[in-house]
User: What shape does this take?
Amino acid sequence: MNNPITDVLHVDELIKMALQEDISNEDITTNAVMPEYKKGTVDLICKQDGVICGLNVFARTFEILDKNTETTLFYKDGDAVKKGDKVAVVTGDIRVLLSGERTALNYLQRMSGIATYTRQVADLLKGSKTKLLDTRKTTPNMRIFEKYAVKVGGGVNHRYNLSDGILLKDNHIGAAGSVANAVKMAKEYAPFVRKIEVEVENLDMCKEAVEAGADIIMLDNMSVADMKAAVKMIGGRALTECSGNVTKENIANIVETGVDYVSSGALTHSAPIMDLSLKHLHAI
Assistant: This one.
């Protein structure tokens, strides 16, 4: 599978878990109508315009059920597709095509939906210095797929998980007692190569984060006016990130503040799926 996402060892295990969720014992319907092996083929049809993503995960789902299954792809991840396009053809044991259909489509529809929504938002940032980030607001056991889809759509991945970077949020600051103390403790604990990001909610917290030596300052749920003031206050001494209810409807106002990054949980938690179907199954 020529796709960076599949280089991660546990991807196959995640797909197997999804298949097991859907086939706990047997596919009773398929076994009733197709009790023995018969080779067949089925077309993957796009039912709406969008950005396709997850094709190798889609193909791998069938391969895990039967290594002899073959998927011919007519597009690659990141390509724009139109309603009615034939995206791929899957050939193999008809029982595998029927049993793997829903799981394979679930991955492809979800990942394509995220890539499509991300592309729409990323296009709104063209011409600006601001880069689009995702968050950890992902579906359990789907993070690797959903963050990959964000990249395919033109976004940039924020930290992958809690082991991947230091982000001092409101409750961390509360536990430490202050912004300054939280940054001090993080610097003492973490290797010097780790950047320290601090979430701030007002200009006073922003000032404290700058003076404490934060590398990245996240402006969380602040007004456009306060974000502009914060960017001016920081004056390039730290990278800036805007967060909090960021959607494609309001992102234009945020770009005007001059922040370096804008993070949006909506990329993964609110993107609608892209409609795709397996059609025209027949024996060959």
Observations:
- DSSP finds eleven helices and twelve strands in the chain.
